[in-house]
Write a structure and sequence with these properties.
Blueprint lengths: L3 H15 L7 E3 L13 E2 L8 H4 L9 H22 L45 H14 L6 H9 L7 H13 L23 H18 L1 E5 L5 E7 L2 E10 L4 E8 L3 E7 L2 E7 L3 E7 L8 E7 L7 E8 L6
Parallel strand pairs: 3-11
Antiparallel strand pairs: 1-2, 4-5, 5-6, 6-9, 7-8, 7-10, 10-11
Length: about 325
C-alpha cells in the first residue's frame, strides 16, 4: 500500500473530499472500523493554520473505497441541488423565472391551437400529407429564408436540412430534381411506391423529396412578384379560422405598393423594408388596406399578416415589384 501509484490515488480521493471542506464544519468524521481500518477526524476550524501535509488525512485502505465513493456522490448531489435551487432552469421561451398559475382564472377562454397557418397544407399538391409538426417546422424555416438573396435551390436545401442533418449531398441532388419537376408529378419519389399510408412509412430519400416539394410550394406561395403592367395579383392562404386573401398592386407612376387584405377575423398588416414601414389594423373581420410610397423596383418588401385571436406568429410574405417594360 506504499507504492507511488496507490499514494497518488489516495491523495486524489482525499483532495476530492477536501473540496467540500469550505461548506461543512467537518469533512471527515470518525467512523466505525471498516475492514480493520479507521479514518481520522479532521476539523477545519482547528486546522486553519496547519500546513498542507498536516491537513492531508491518512491514506485510505482498499476496503474504504466504496465508502469514499458514496461520500463523494453525496457531496456532488448536494452541490447540484444547491445550484438548481439558486439558479432554476428555464424553458426555451423564458428569459427569467416566472410563476405560472395552477389553473385558468376564466374558464370561458377559448384556446386556439398555435400555428393556425399550417392549414394551408391541404391546398398544396403533395402525394401524401406531412405530419403537422414537421410541416410547421418547414413553414417556419421557409419564412426565415424568404428574403435571403440566394437561389431557390439553396433555399430549398436550407429549409429542409434541419430535418435531415446528415444528408447534405442527397438533399442537393434531390433539390435539383424537385426544381425540374411540376407539382403534380411524383418523379422525385420512387415510381414503384404507391405513396399510400403515412409520411413515416416512406423511405428516407422519399421523405426528403416530399419535404423539398412542400418547401418549394411554400416559398412560391409566400413570394409575390408584382409587375407594373399587371392590374392586381391575388394570393390566398388558408388558416384554421378561414381564408386570408391578399390583393396587391404596383403603381409605377406613383411609386406605390398597394395591399388590400380580406381577413377572417380582426387583425393587422405591416408592410416594410428597412426603416420604411406602414401599418394598418382592423378590429373586425373584413377588408383592410395600406399603401407604401417610394417603392423601388426589384427590391424585396415584407408583408406581415397577423390575426389577433389566433395564438401564433404573423405570417410573412415577400413582395417584389418589377417593371417588365424596361426589359423589352
Amino acid at each position: 500500500m506504499n507504492s507511488d501509484t496507490e499514494s497518488l490515488q489516495n491523495q486524489l480521493l482525499a483532495w476530492l473530499l477536501a473540496e467540500d471542506a469550505s461548506t461543512e464544519e467537518d469533512f471527515l468524521v470518525e467512523s466505525e472500523e471498516n475492514n480493520g481500518a479507521k479514518t481520522t477526524k479532521a476539523n477545519t476550524a482547528s486546522t486553519s493554520g496547519a500546513s498542507e501535509s498536516e491537513l492531508m488525512p491518512y491514506p485510505f485502505q482498499l476496503g474504504e473505497i466504496p465508502a469514499v465513493q458514496k461520500r463523494f456522490q453525496a457531496v456532488l448531489k448536494r452541490r447540484l441541488q444547491n445550484q438548481i435551487q439558486d439558479n432554476p432552469p428555464l424553458f426555451p421561451w423564458e428569459s427569467q423565472v416566472i410563476d405560472y398559475p395552477d389553473y385558468v382564472d376564466s374558464p370561458s377562454i377559448a384556446w386556439v391551437p398555435a400555428w393556425g397557418w399550417a392549414a394551408q397544407q391541404s391546398k398544396l399538391s403533395l402525394p401524401i400529407p406531412m405530419p403537422e409538426k414537421i410541416f410547421q417546422q418547414l413553414l417556419a424555416k421557409c419564412q426565415e429564408l424568404l428574403t435571403f438573396p440566394v437561389p431557390l435551390g439553396a433555399k430549398l436545401v436550407g429549409a429542409v436540412e434541419s430535418l435531415f442533418p446528415n444528408e447534405p449531398q442527397t438533399l442537393n441532388d434531390l433539390a435539383g430534381m424537385v426544381l425540374r419537376s411540376p407539382y403534380r408529378s411524383a418523379d422525385t419519389l420512387e415510381k414503384s411506391t404507391t405513396l399510400e399510408g403515412s409520411f413515416s412509412d416512406l423511405q428516407p430519400r422519399q421523405q426528403m423529396a416530399l419535404s423539398l416539394l412542400a418547401a418549394k410550394q411554400l416559398l412560391e406561395n409566400l413570394t409575390v412578384t408584382i409587375d407594373a403592367a399587371q392590374d392586381v395579383v391575388e394570393k390566398q392562404w388558408l388558416t384554421d379560422v378561414g381564408n386570408v386573401t391578399l390583393r396587391i398592386k404596383y403603381d409605377l407612376v406613383g411609386g406605390k405598393l398597394l395591399v388590400e387584405a380580406q381577413l377572417p377575423q380582426q387583425g393587422s398588416l405591416k408592410l416594410r423594408k428597412d426603416d420604411l414601414q406602414v401599418e394598418a389594423e382592423s378590429s373586425v373581420s373584413g377588408s383592410i388596406s395600406l399603401e407604401l410610397n417610394s417603392v423601388q423596383q426589384g427590391a424585396t418588401y415584407t408583408l406581415a399578416v397577423e390575426l389577433q385571436e389566433m395564438d401564433t406568429q404573423p405570417l410573412t410574405f415577400a413582395i417584389v415589384p418589377t417593371n417588365s417594360s424596361e426589359l423589352s
